[in-house]
Amino acid sequence: MEPSSRAYCRGVTPSTLPSVTADDVRAAATLLDGVITRTPVVESRALSQLAGAEVVLKCENLQRAGSFKVRGAYTRLSRLTPRERARGVVAASAGNHAQGVALAASMLGIDALVFMPVDAPLPKLSATRGYGAEVRQVGTSVDEALAAARVEAARSGRILIHPFDHADIVAGQGTIGLEILEQVPDVATVLVPLGGGGLVAGIAAVLADVAPHVRVIGVQAAQAAAYPGSLQTGRPTAVTPGPTMADGIAVGTPGQVPFGLVAGHGVEVRTVSEELLSRGLLMVLERSKLMVEPAGAAAVAALLAAAPGEFRGPVVPVLSGGNIDPLVLLRVVRHGLVAAGRYLQLRIRVADRPGALARLVDAVAAAGANIVQVEHSRTDVELSVSEVRVDMQVETKSAEHRTAVVERLRAEGFDVAV
């Protein structure tokens, strides 16, 4: 299993926690009744076998607007005063909070303006506009879009709807925790994708009060992990997110409200690699027939990284969202196939004589691999005049099969580079 890193905090005590309790979450649940979808839970036999414990997926990817974000957005917007509603709202998001705010604003008759990064996925842009919000693209990250939203709020008087750093947002997201307790009463471990922290903070707040025996673990993309360093220093500390497929959790600075709850409730934080994210997405898509975005697969990625039996079951990974650009999906699935040993790219030198390529193709077929693409080159300067280079993409059945294919080709005398 690929390891994941872990972080804890001992510098924040419960006395310093923001005021978000189980009662706040229950009040939000009442407010959201009939507004949001009570998303299903789905048992995964494949993940249960890997984890050595029962695994039940909480499918927020099937939520209205495609993610959990509408829970917090509607809770926050519905509590604005009539005067605040008249001023309109402004938000910033990589896409899911944008859609949640746009949908909630349309239901409540509030004018919404949303700032999104310039490279935000097209489906998220289109959906946000489709719900009636005005969209402006600025910067290359959620943090830059949020800075622009703050400027606009100060200039226009619009109410800033922060994606995670507000008690109402946290309480709304925490309603997922109540549903998990009702749907999986004996739940022992909850794995939660973690960006700014609103989702895991809300779930931790309600479980700490109602079911303190339940272990809550936040999962960040290693390329955009602000919480580990923040938990070590005892305060929100900014990082510069690197490139990650998990744009939905690529947040550079934890929010004050969620950080206090995450630290005070002793939530463990783990990080997962891009390979684990792609493998997690592929696993959910292939075995559970559920579409998730990379950020939405973070909890499953942590499960894949863990040793069998490491998490006490039932384990509930939260699939936080399913809004993924089809073009991104193609790349991520390919990445996941490679990471899982299901896809192999070979560079092979063969003699430049009739029948050499046919012998190579026969050897690949005999090894049980399926050739997807072949490119044949004689012009590489590293080749001798009597050689050609063959770049070959093949499908394999597993990591073990991938290794066996390479070993067989080398045993038959081919010069193979992977």
UniProtKB/TrEMBL annotation:
InterPro entries, per database record? ACT-like_dom_sf, ACT_dom, ACT_ThrD-II-like, Ser/Thr_Dehydratase, Thr_deHydtase_catblc, TrpB-like_PALP, TrpB-like_PALP_sf
Q: Does the keyword field hold Lyase?
A: yes
Q: Which PROSITE patterns match?
A: ACT
Cofactor(s) for this protein? pyridoxal 5'-phosphate
EC number(s) reported in the record: 4.3.1.19
Residue span(s) of domain ACT: 345-418
Protein's name according to its UniProt entry:
threonine ammonia-lyase
